[in-house]
Amino acid sequence: MKKIELNRKKVIIALILIILIQSVVYFFVACNKNYIHIDEGYSYGLINYDKIEITDNKDFYNTWHSKDYYNDYLTISSNEAADWSPVYEQQKNDVHPPFYYFMLRIFDSFNTDNFSKWPGIVLNMFIHIGITVFTYLVADRLFKNKWYALGIALIGGLTTATLETIMLTRMYALTALNILIILYLHLINYEKEEIDIKSLSIMVPFIVLGSLTHYYYLVFLFVLYVMFMIKYLRKKQVKNAIKYTGCMAVSGIISLLIFPYSFAHMFMGYRGQGLLSNLTDIDNAWNGIHKFLKLTFINVSNGMFMVAIIVILGIFIYEYVKNKQITLKFENKETLFILIPTLVYFIIVAVGSPYTEIRYIMPIAPLLFMLGIYAFKNVLKRELKEDLINKILIIGAVILLLVPIVFKWNITYQYPEMKEFVDRIEEDHAKTTLFVFNKNANRFMDDIYLFTKIDESYIIDSNLVTEQEIRKVLINKNINDGMYLYINEDLENDDFINIVLKATGLTNCNYIKRLNACDVYYLF
Q1: Given this model, what pLDDT does residue 1 score?
Q2: What is the pTM of this model?
Q3: Which CATH number fits domain 416-523: 3.40.1010, 3.30.2010, 2.40.50, 2.40.128?
Q4: How far apart are CA 271 and CA 389, in angstroms?
Q5: Inter-residue contact 98 to 87 (CB < 8 Å)
Q6: Which end of the chain is more exposed for a tag (fewer CB within 10 A), N or C?
Q7: How far apart are CA 22 and CA 401, in angstroms?
Q8: How far apart are alpha carbons 298 and 295 in whole angstroms?
Q9: Residue 279 has pLDDT above 90, yes or no
Q10: Averaged over 398-426, what is the pLDDT?
């Protein structure tokens, strides 16, 4: 069969079709998102509220609040629409730079006075248009084949890792785009004998925006810088080294002028200190890498990397038995400029992250996917003809797409396990709700979304819970048809249940659900 040649126009048409397919998939997946992650709550709160924690309000505890009280944290009200100061001020007080929050604020501004999951998801969908385009551009440099690059852009955008990225309202999708852009700009300058000021000037704004999106971006950028400096110095291209270093310096100065708090966040903040502490804990290093490798195998390739590794090992064993040696080689040197920064980023994240969650490798998921396919393809080339390899990869792509459907994999950040409970709370929105809160286990943001559904709720300090106090709190409340009781973690649940039952005269207690930081009961 004659191979169709791809010109620029055909590639653009193909990318538009890919983006449309992906967007339709993202929309339908997003329709089934039932809950928000604690950090998604912070994402929305930090673009409009005057405090990082809603629990810092003086009137938070021991007062009846309507759902509007909690909605106010998550939404931009009409009278706040013109006040953009929280986008900058709250990030100064937190541990993240402000650019992602600026973007989220733009999208959330179309949805004032009412909380919705859609602003963050739609923002991610727009960002992923750029991710698809730059995944294609980087993959084209890696594979030297536009068909492969289009395939990587299409399939890589439909893995569970990508779907998780779209569903999570955080800065990880934007960080992925920033990494792809700066990598591509480096790759197109790789072969230049003399790097020109125009090329460096193009890099500057993207370096600045990347550093103002997520600090882990700087890990990837630093490795690229070291590799290019080694290249320039080995070739005695001193002028290139000076100009390139100047580009980085100018970018760094601009970034710090815009957001000077970055330095304190990275080196004196609790996240920066925590990362450095984890990196020096050698005993836990391999454990972290092992856990993140598992996440990568499952999510970045929908499990197909495990099959690829088995095939690769089989070919290596066959070659060793046949030739008594195994040789490794790369088709082009640019491969190392993709591989090494990605691996260093992965190791830093795996060893240094506070939690083992897919979100920490989302920024490099497109690169991990294309590198995995690249390695698999090149090992197959040692023993098989290209036509057969193409057929194997097409079959593998189909299986990759079918695996989550056939085995009914859940998208974590859809929170499918929360649908039934959220539906119940929405139906029982008028029921009296009491939350016994442990100030030493402050994780209210885990469940703030629920309280935007409840007409009225009362957060009581666990230290104040007595029969007399409960009677006082519920004195004018109708609990004849039952009430909900939330009990924060690290408390003796039975003790508080008994106190509330005695105070109210209710006699029955049904355990409803364990949430991330509390247990929910229905008393009647």
Answers
A1: 43
A2: 0.95
A3: 3.40.1010
A4: 45
A5: yes
A6: N
A7: 12
A8: 5
A9: no
A10: 96
